[in-house]
Write a structure and sequence with these properties.
215 residues, alpha/beta, 2 domains, 5 helices, 24% helix, 31% strand
């Protein structure tokens, strides 16, 4: 199985020892696997918390392996995506087209938006999330900043200063056992225009299923 790696990020082989000591990098890789699994609905909130605590205190590779033994193996492609996570991504744009992050884009640890009169859309529906917090430093004037969420993603706008700007925050429908896979903290200033936080739009079929029946 050359296309698969162990949850610790190392290729398994006959000469590997399960009692080898785990490094910080080994623990971090397992934490990433657990968070991705929770984001895909494989772990609930209590299971995620319990396993994260165990992963951070694990001393050996065998202890880490036990935490992901019942999860699908991580492909080499997914391992490469985790490795691509950047600490800081900066976007600068003035009076031009729309800025979009959609599909399976890799969420950085911090995002800096220095944008003037450009619409910005950050769609987290299929985003690759490998950590629990994203800070967005906003220095934006005009147009709309739009964040599309999914269950398990919380948006905190308390530290964002709004100047002649409207905020519309519509939360995704969740259940009590939905784990929080990502907390997005907006800081800085948004002048003029709008900030919109909403779940994905319903498909036509979903709209029909939720449409009240006529008498």
């Amino acid at each position: 199985m050359s296309g698969e790696i162990s949850p610790t990020g190392k290729h398994s082989g006959p000469g590997s020892s399960p009692e080898l000591r785990a490094s910080h990098a080994d623990r971090d890789r397992v934490v990433d696997v657990l968070r991705i699994a929770a984001g895909e609905g494989l772990l609930n909130a209590d299971e995620l918390d319990e396993r994260l605590e165990a992963a951070l205190s694990a001393r050996t590779l065998s202890e880490l392996a036990a935490l992901t033994a019942d999860l699908p193996p991580v492909s080499a492609t997914a391992g490469a995506i985790v490795a691509e996570v950047k600490d800081v991504v900066r976007i600068e744009q003035v009076f031009s087209g729309t800025i979009e992050r959609v599909g399976r884009w890799v969420v950085p640890r911090r995002l800096e938006l220095a944008v003037t009169y450009c619409d910005v859309t950050l769609d987290f529906t299929d985003a690759v999330i490998t950590h629990d917090t994203l800070q967005i430093d906003v220095a934006m004037a005009g147009k709309t900043l739009k964040l599309i969420t999914r269950p398990g993603i919380e948006i905190d706008t308390d530290a964002l200063q709004l100047v002649h700007c409207k905020l519309k925050n519509r939360r995704s429908p969740t259940t009590p056992d939905t784990p929080v896979t990502l907390r997005v903290e907006l800081v800085g200033q948004k002048a003029h225009g709008r900030v919109v936080v909403r779940p994905p739009r319903r498909t036509f079929t979903q709209w029909l299923l939720r449409r009240p029946r006529s008498r």
